[in-house]
Design a protein that fits this description.
The structure is a single chain. The chain is an alpha/beta fold. The protein has a single domain (about 15-285), classed as TIM Barrel (Alpha-Beta Barrel). The protein has helices at about 10-15, 45-55, 70-80, 100-110, 130-140, 155-165, 185-195, 210-215, 225-235, 255-265, 270-285; strands spanning about 20-25, 60-65, 85-90, 115-120, 145-150, 170-175, 200-205, 240. The chain has an eight-stranded parallel β-sheet. Helix 4 (about 100-110) links the parallel strand 3 (about 85-90) and strand 4. Helix 4 packs parallel to helix 5, helix 7 packs parallel to helix 9 (about 225-235) and helix 9 crosses helix 10. Mean pLDDT is about 90; it is low at about 1-10, about 290-305 and about 305-310.
Length: about 300
């Protein structure tokens, strides 16, 4: 990583206005049952997270959908009103049905003023998925970030194709693009990171996803190499800390996980300026937090350019 001009000093470097770029809420019974994640089957509410954040550096969060369907967006609207630290919302849109997505984005914009992005489940084996070109084009026209969990080379190729078609679409890859924290050859993961980081419109969340948490004993030292590699490739201006609460509770409380990710970046050589970026400023920039929250309807335009992007 470049520009290591000063020792970091974690406590001093991180502002008290930190933004956690990824958290969820859900009621009991909406998530698919999985014995590996049985502790997550209860409800997780704004009150629960407020208690975990009390007295810590995190002042705001990006609230992210957890299941598909319009009812999830209705829940997000209610959560965003109840949870005062919510600064941006990533809602659900049907990635494979642009007509339904167009109707839903209009409906959700009326209900969620903090709407900043969308996501949906992406098949791990497909690098060309029907509907994706049109829906990501719609998202770009509406100024929304496309969030995606990348676990395979095929998904990375799809991100490359979407980025080539609409370089103005901001794309955020969650959970470090699923590194092999539990062991295994890191070279395929590094190859994906290199390809994704080569795309200027792509950022990454320095977080740990469920796929890693169910196969990995919590060893914070293991985070350093992966966080450092991603930070090297993306730079702090395209990297953001994300707690992934309450999923991270499979291994650790929010404060423990947040500190572990921050310490991993510091051990990897992040300067105090870079720590400030990844813990606050980058998320504020990518999700337009604290800036102009108004959105204007796009002007009429022709079909989105999609070179090489198959339907």
């Amino acid at each position: 990583m470049e520009h290591r001009l000063e020792p970091a000093g974690t406590a001093e470097a991180v502002p008290s206005t930190a933004i956690d770029a990824h958290q969820h809420f859900w009621p009991e019974g909406v998530r698919p049952r999985d014995p590996r994640t049985a502790t997550l089957e209860r409800a997780f509410t704004p009150g629960d997270l407020s208690r975990e954040l009390a007295g810590g550096p995190v002042a705001g969060t990006v609230l992210v959908q957890c299941v598909a369907g319009p009812q999830e967006n209705d829940r997000l609207a209610a959560y965003a009103e109840e949870f005062r630290p919510a600064r941006a919302v990533v809602a659900w849109l049907p990635l494979y049905d642009v007509d339904a997505a167009r109707r839903e984005v209009v409906r959700v914009r009326e209900r969620i003023p903090l709407l900043r992005g969308f996501r949906d489940v992406l098949p791990s084996a497909a690098d060309a998925v029907p509907g994706v070109p049109d829906t990501t084009c719609l998202a770009a026209d509406h100024g929304l970030v496309w969030e995606v969990v990348v676990v395979s080379d095929a998904q990375a190729r799809l991100v490359e194709k979407v980025s080539a078609a609409r370089p103005d679409l901001q794309i955020v890859v969650a959970h470090l693009a699923t590194p092999p924290l539990g062991g295994g050859d890191p070279r395929p993961w590094k190859y994906r990171i290199d390809r994704l980081a080569a795309l200027p419109s792509v950022a990454i969340k320095l977080s740990v996803g469920a796929d890693a948490l169910v196969t990995w004993e919590w060893e914070p030292e293991r985070l350093t190499g992966f966080v450092g590699y991603a930070l090297d490739r993306f730079g702090a201006h395209r990297s953001m800390l994300a707690g992934n609460w309450p999923v991270v509770r499979l291994a650790a409380a929010h404060s423990t996980a947040w500190k572990a990710l921050l310490n991993a970046a510091e051990r990897a050589g992040a300067s105090s300026g870079e720590l400030r970026l990844i813990s606050s400023a980058t998320a504020r920039s990518w999700y337009r937090i604290g800036g102009d929250r108004a959105w204007k309807a796009p002007e009429a335009s022709g079909p989105c350019p999609r070179p090489g992007l198959a339907h």
